[in-house]
Design a protein that fits this description.
five-stranded parallel β-sheet, single chain, 8 helices, 5 strands, binds adenosine monophosphate, Rossmann fold
């Protein structure tokens, strides 16, 4: 029954770590970015709407994102725990998630903050642009995504820190090494797979 959030700047390695942690803990990784990309690829109504924001590096509106997460967390596999990757990203999303958890009579166990310096993050994202061809990995859009993260998402770290939930992890290094740091830090808080 582990409920985790993964927070960090674009390019900090959230997606990669989310997959590994979900496997370790036997819980689903719920990535709003992945869900939006899946919908964009399949040209659904949600995808068309999301794309117009994603391509510019802006956030998809809270109402849309909150509904998406609410229905995803209501699925059976999330009852025994989940790892949210890339949600919440705004103050309003925090309030919504609090409501969802309260309604379910549950709470978060920890918020994993992955850190990486800006130069490294930009380098990784430009690299990913070449490897994966993501439409939002161009230099201008990357810059905007980092700005939006600083403005809207970085302040959430304090919100969760005041609840004593934040575990800060250096996101630089080999993938397995970073996963090891996260699992060790969680174990030190009594959270283990
Ligand atoms: P990510 O893969 O997590 O970097 O997400 C890619 C893009 O999807 C973001 O730049 C946003 O446009 C959108 N997105 C993902 N998660 C959220 C969220 N929680 N709130 C709003 N927009 C989101």
């Amino acid at each position: 029954m582990t409920r985790l959030l993964l927070i960090g700047a674009p390019g900090a390695g959230k997606g990669t770590q989310a997959v590994r942690l979900a496997e370790t803990f036997g819980i689903p990784a719920v990535s709003t970015g992945d869900i939006f990309r899946y919908n964009v690829k399949n040209e659904t109504e949600l995808g068309k709407l999301a794309k117009s924001f994603m391509d510019r590096g802006e956030y998809v509106p809270d109402s849309v994102t909150n509904d998406l997460v609410r229905s995803r967390l209501a699925e059976a596999d999330a009852a025994a725990g989940f790892l949210l990757d890339g949600y919440p990203r705004t103050a309003e999303q925090v309030v919504e998630l609090d409501g969802m958890l309260e309604a379910a009579g549950t709470q978060l166990d920890a918020v994993v903050l992955l850190t990486a310096d800006t130069d490294e993050v930009v380098r990784r994202l430009l690299n990913r642009a070449v490897e994966q061809g993501r439409a939002d990995d161009t230099e201008d859009v990357i810059r905007r995504r980092l700005e939006v993260y600083e403005e809207q998402t970085a302040p959430l770290i304090n919100v969760y820190a005041s609840r004593n939930l934040v575990v800060t992890i250096d996101g630089l290094g080999e993938v397995a090494e970073v996963t090891g740091r996260i699992t060790a830090a969680l174990a030190a808080r009594g959270i283990s797979a």
